[in-house]
Amino acid sequence: MNNAIAGFSKLSKEDKITWIANEYFSNPTKSIDLLKKYWNSDAKLQQLHDDFIENTITNFYLPLGVAPNFLINGNYYTIPMAIEESSVVAAASKAAKFWSTRGGFKTTVIDTEKIGQVHFIFNGDAAKLERFFASIYDSFFLATENITKNMQSRGGGIRSISLRNKTDVLPNYFQLHVTFETIDSMGANFINSCLEQFAKTLKEEALNYPLFSENEKNIQIVMSILSNYVPNCLVRAEVSCKIADLAEKNIENPEEFAEKFVRAVQIAEVEPYRAVTHNKGIMNGVDAVVLATGNDFRAIEAGVHAYASRNGQYSSLSHAKIEDGIFTFWMEIPLALGTVGGLTSLHPLVKLSLEMLENPSAKELMQIVAVAGLPDCAVHVPVPVAAIVAV
User: Where are the beta strands (DSSP E) in the chain?
Assistant: First the structure.
């Protein structure tokens, strides 16, 4: 039976590995050798990776590939993708080549709004709380001036603060719902710092509000934290062409192909069991670029799938139609991305990936990532395999 260990995090890297090997592996010496094979020979680079997380024992590699020939809004890109699934980069590359001769990908950033919330319990008169909130509204902005100054100089900052009454879902539950613009940073630290100050201001001002009873003055802060659900941080990506232009050696009947494609997407729009696999195809491409550019794929996944359920049923993120002889395939997805801060300034390969993309702004990266999600989604549309690699 394996034993518990105290103070594991304080052990040296060598001692951590030795303990793990002796406790869990049938051949400790061979296992230690394998772990060390994945260490970087550059000691400084290895230390950089060791410092990303706690209790590091080795590096777990993923291939970094590229998909060239992506024509996006008239500009060509070679897109870096970090992923282990063999078909994803191939599908992206083939789709990029196919659509580069048919007008390429068209993208639009719809909005870049980020969200954070202060969740709190208020035992008292909701109408009184609303009057209190209105009276101290400006105080929230004044109290965070030192936090928002640099962000405002770059064109970002706090967009709005609203009080939301959630007592219909949980007794005495209210929240400050705050929207932000964080420009090229993902903005998690900035948002959380602002929210923590909002919570402090809320409690302090409540203690001095003359219309509150003693009980009402005791506002209980539960948490102050950003949300990874960003339904208004949206980007649209699409491809379109005449149905006749879909013709290739693998597509003998473009009209039949387009109709089957549209019908398959329609099924994903109404059938959750199909939609999950369909959207998994989208996230194959999205996650691969998110990883390669040092962004948080877990946050992106959570936000995207919540968005797919926003109407009460999980549904397809992408859509397709035939109208006036034109085939169009598109999607709108929420992507809260950053090109500065975090791993973007620490990981050497992330820096290289961003340079490969010509050092995009966060808005530009949103468009690139969204485009990368369309090709593998098409591969997950169940029309004849010989044809789907092209679209």
Answer: 64-72, 75-82, 106-109, 114-121, 157-165, 173-181, 220-227, 234-242, 318-323, 326-334
pLDDT (average), residues 143-165:
97
Which tens digit of pLDDT belongs to each residue from 108-147? 999 999 999 999 999 999 999 999 999 999 999 999 999 9
> d(Cα 339, Cα 350) in Å, to the nearest integer?
10
Cβ partners under 8 Å of residue 100, min gap 6: 69, 70, 71, 76
pLDDT band at residue 385 under the 50/70/90 scheme = very low
132 contact partners, CB below 8 Å, separation of at least 6: 205, 206, 209, 211, 212
Angle, helix 188-207 to helix 145-153, in steps of 10 degrees: 150
Please list, in sequence order, all residues whose beta carbon lies within 8 angstroms of the beta carbon of residue 41, skipping any fewer than 6 positions away.
none
Tens digits of per-residue pLDDT, 284-327?
999 999 999 999 999 999 999 999 999 999 999 999 999 999 99
Q: Which amino acid is at 251?
A: I
Question: Rounded distance, CA 153 to CA 159, Å?
Answer: 14
Q: Are 257 and 246 in contact (CB under 8 A)?
A: yes
The pLDDT of residue 388 is above 50 = no
The pair of structure tokens assigned to 206 is: 């409540």
Residue bearing tokens 């690699």: 389
CA gap 171, 338 in Å, rounded: 37
Q: Is 239 exposed, middle or buried (0-12, 13-18, 19+ CB in 10 A)?
A: buried
The count of C-alpha atoms lying within 13 angstroms of the C-alpha of 337, restricted to the half-sphere facing its C-beta, is 33
Query: pTM value?
Result: 0.93
Average pLDDT of every residue of the chain? 94
Query: Pick from 337, 331, 310: which is nearest to 376 by CA?
Result: 331
CB-count burial class (<10 Å; 0-12, 13-18, 19+) for 388: buried
Query: DSSP label at 125?
Result: -
Tokens encoding 218: 């005791």
